[in-house]
Amino acid sequence: MTELPDQPRPDDQEQPVTSPSAPEGADPPAEAIVIGLLVAAGVCAGAFIAIYALDRLPYHTQLLGSALGLSFVLLAAAAIVFGIRLVDDEEGEEDYPSEGDPEAQEAVAEIVESAGSRLTRGRLLGAAAGGAGTVLGVALITPAVSLGPVFDMEPMSETAWSRGRRLVDEAGRPLLAADIDEDVFYTAFPEGADRNELGSPLVLVRLDPSQLDLPAGREDWAPEGILAYSKICTHAGCAIALYRTPLFPPVSPKPALVCPCHYSTFDPATGASVIFGPAGRPLPQLPLEIDTAGGLRAAGNLSGPPGPSWWGVRMRQAT
Ligand code: FES
């Protein structure tokens, strides 16, 4: 009786070796790539915030655009790798089952569950995605701080004007009340102060006191009908450089201060209220007084923050 050669028994066949920590279908390298891309996206978004805050780097605008653009590119790359390598791909050969089919719903739930179970670093992926999303969200709202302060508005109202400060012309000569004629437009500055400060330049006009209809509490702010307003437009900060005076008062429009940038028009007789254009609020008014020598002096500070109507300035005006 001849002996048959040893045949491998089913139990002796080589079995595939699987890592106990990696579920079937897991792809740890792909997960590492996705996590790396998400972290890099968050770092780029953080760089956008830092560049925005520093504000003095060369090629500032280009750096801002590059940081934000790169962050989005990395985020998109992470989503693509995740979609291709880590999400179950199933192709159906049959028609889609009708809507509401419980079997189909169960099958979809299984696919979603199995896709999740394939991730070996699910928490880390979630944390990376959450972190990148949070930093990117902060980066997107960072430019909103440029709209100006909302709560602490006092610094916006600080100017060189205070009671007793003399008004001088462009050459530094003190302005006298007698120098101010009707139908003429004057520029004034605070004596001895920095003229480049936003609150420094004023426009001065003289109107017939009987024409004035100033807001309540300003009855003595315009001695002899002389009015002083901030020269900086409350729309976008251009200089008020035009003065419209009636050529034939019975039919001409009343006197108005005009900004040449977008034609915001202010009525000096009513506290520089806006009668035309995009400006969001009146020009701040400076209360005036005339000293014993006939010189024009400030009787206090401007009635509000000079310059464009920032977010907080508008909110304060509304209250
Ligand atoms: S800046 Fe004056 S109207 Fe725009």
What does this structure look like?
The protein is an alpha+beta fold and 319 residues long. Helices cover 32% and strands 12% of the residues. It has two domains: 24-89 and 105-147; 155-318, Rieske Iron-sulfur Protein, CATH 2.102.10.10. A five-stranded antiparallel beta sheet has the order 1-2-3-4-9, with no helix packed on it. Strands 5-6-7-8 form a four-stranded antiparallel beta sheet, with no helix packed on it. It has a two-stranded antiparallel ribbon with strand order 10-11. α1 runs antiparallel to α2 and α1 runs parallel beside α4. Residues 14-20 have low confidence and may be disordered.
Quick synopsis:
The protein is built from 6 helices and 11 strands.
Structurally, the number of domains stands at: 2
Output the CATH class name of the largest domain: Mainly Beta
Return the CATH topology of the largest domain: Rieske Iron-sulfur Protein
SSE arrangement, N to C? HHHHHEEEEEEEEEEEH
- Give the structural class: alpha+beta
Give the oligomer, counting copies of the same chain as homo and different chains as hetero. single chain
Strand elements, count = 11
* Straight-line distance between termini: 111 Å
Quickly count the helices: 6
Helix content: 25-40%
Write out the CATH superfamily name of the largest domain: Rieske [2Fe-2S] iron-sulphur domain
Shape: elongated
List the topology elements.
Elements (H helix, E strand, L loop, with lengths): L27 H27 L5 H27 L15 H16 L4 H20 L12 H4 L9 E2 L17 E5 L11 E5 L19 E5 L11 E3 L11 E3 L6 E3 L5 E4 L8 E2 L1 E3 L5 E3 L12 H8 L1
Antiparallel strand pairs: 1-2, 2-3, 3-4, 4-9, 5-6, 6-7, 7-8, 10-11
Helix pairs in contact: 1-2, 1-4
The site of FE2/S2 (inorganic) cluster (FES) has 11 residues, from loops.
